[in-house]
Amino acid sequence: MKIEEQWTSKLGFILAAAGSAIGLGAIWKFPYVAGTNGGAIFFLLFILFTLFIGAPILIAEFIIGRATQKDAISAYRELAPRTPWHFIGYLGVIASIVLLSFYSVVGGWILSYLWRSITGAFSGLSQEQYASLFEKTIGNPAEAIITQLIFMLITIWVVQGGIQKGIEKANKYMMPALFILFIILAIRSMTLTGASSGIEFLLKPDFSNVSAQTLLLSLGQSFFALSVGISVMVTYASYLSKAENMMKSAFSVVGLNILISLLAGLVIFPAVFALGFEPDAGPGLVFVVLPAVFNEMVFGGVFLSIFLILLLFATLTSAFSILEIVVAVMVKKEAGKRKRAAWIAGIIIFVIGIPSALSFGVLSDITLFKKGIFDFADFMVSNVGLPLGALFISIFVGYRVPRKLVKKELELGTKGLGKLFDLWYFSIRYVVPIAIIIVFLNSVGILK
Q: Span 90-109, mean pLDDT?
């Protein structure tokens, strides 16, 4: 079969895959979940679970994608013809549509805040005013929809350009810029007077803070931070050369994800402690507390703008991968159809996301199972779609795909894996499914 597009280099693939994984989960969610669950002990558990649970699923998705070099639905159909396994791909596509529909809303919030930071609208506000500003921003119907549309137009424009000229090219600029900006902010934050308390909070584990909730939340964070479960990496790996070492690529992505989470913690917690704020502010940490923190710094407005730019970059690189799943299924590797497919899929997703954009304003009274529209969409993807998809993928690779095929695919581009393959295979068959089931049961409220 002729491959219409491939990554031009291993680095291009790693940066794109890392960009997919490094999004709001690492920069927005990690700090506030860590801040409310023990800091350093949460981070330690997150690292362990990412290495031993998240990485095996990531590798499994890589195997499915590169072995078939097909989209998220066709890949499962080829490996298990005349069986229902291809519904894993449909689950991934549906989850991706719903995910991007509300993810783009948050992307719009970031654009709103970036504009305000550039124009100096944050200057001199009190912490209470930051809280009311956030509520006003997300509750303004026109602003919410317009900024969501702008975010989606940027995403569509990049994805319609293709793998090499669109997604890979954008990530090659955005990801290095993201790391550079993060390092600048981390250095500034750690040099504040009193920052050592924040560094200690992030890096010195207190084992007395370990609880069942800490274990489950850190496992869930490691799982969701890598964006596994909706076949994102199946799609990306389908463009990967057979000569590449998938095991090394997977651990490069995992390593970059952990590093970004560390940098996010080193940007936020030293500043929060140094300036007398609390680390357990919850989801509002980035949009409410952080602007107030930066406002207390010399050149704080500049540093806030830098932070919002890197948050926008991280959110966009994830959005590229989510839209690509849908587009890849529509075009079936026929490059001539890509531009039209990207615009059709992107606009449909934007329209589907409008109720989520309005769910904090004019549609705030509408609830589904006691949740607002935005929160319900988030819950269905994060707590149902992702864990179920990852569970099915681990079972599919561990029990349905022949062991010889799995091993052969994983050993391509390597000099032999030895015992590492046996360890990974045992994990994907036994450890990973059990862990996912525990996370899933907890997330839907069965385990508390």
A: 93
